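cron nightly-structures :: item 1 of 1
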Amino acid sequence: MKNYLFAPGPTPIPTETLLAMALPIDYHRASESVELLGNVAAKLKYVFQTKNDVMILTSSGTGAMEATITNLLSSNDRVTVIRSGKFGERWGEICAAYGIRFDPINIEWGRSVDPQQVEDQLNRYPETKAVLATLCETSTGALHDIKTLGEILQNRDTLLVVDAVSALCADDLQMDNWGVDAVISCSHKGLMAPPGIGLVSLSGQAWKSTESSDLPKFYFDLRQAQDAGNRGSTPYTPAITFIKALDRALDHIHQEKIQNVLKRHAYLAHATRGAVKAMGLKLFAQEPANTLTSICLPNGVDGQVLLEMMRNRYGVTYAGGQAKLKGKIIRIAHLGWVCEHDMIVAIST
């Protein structure tokens, strides 16, 4: 039985990317690795749509989120957290772990933040150091309007920090054009590579904030990461095999062109949502991202039982609901190395 993966990470990986992990291991300080890291860093700028450096960390996306907090903020800072699902809540959890005071904007799960709510919050607390947002709230499938948030913050001394862990390459995010100060992502979702690499890119204003940050940091010191990256290296041993795989995956994206990658995800998302509606089912997210489609399950249908049946009987893996949505929704990702034929399997099984 052939297996199909429609979870929002890890995602299907191109064959060439898988084969890259079978190549011999290189010494991470050798010239070959220096060249590899330099090439990957340059290719990542294209995907992030930025001229800023992209730091390559051996971690999950959550590690990259924590690195951003500890490098940009100080113990006396105040931040706004947009909480519309499990991963918006994660921003608050990281802040709490480091004693950072945060003001939440609580959004009903499945809905997207109204940018006016953010502006009102900033008017209430003008000393706010950063707004912590999520491009696609992966737990619900909702998309947030990062472009408008950037417009609101452009004349303020407030950083816009965006978790693009699941949405990079699926939903448009123009870091430089939209005035985003920090973008966080990882290797195993839209970038079509294996898990293990966290990614962070900072604007000039964000780098200035790193100079005064007083939060503890060691492994995730981004100033050290940037300094090493400028020499084609990393402060500590990187996941060199995964970086080889990411290099191949980025070649795919460059060949397809980022705008075509975004169009492909939009096309697959639109088709999937259309099929869901045609079956009489209800979408959970009111303003859905192109990363995944979240579907409300009819009364009497246990989502966990459904997921097990689909995986064991048909070889099709969806993602279930998380936290309070567990058993109530399923999430079908159209993310990574997928095409029309894959999505036909996803919606017809």
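cron nightly-structures :: done
The chain has a mean pLDDT of 97.
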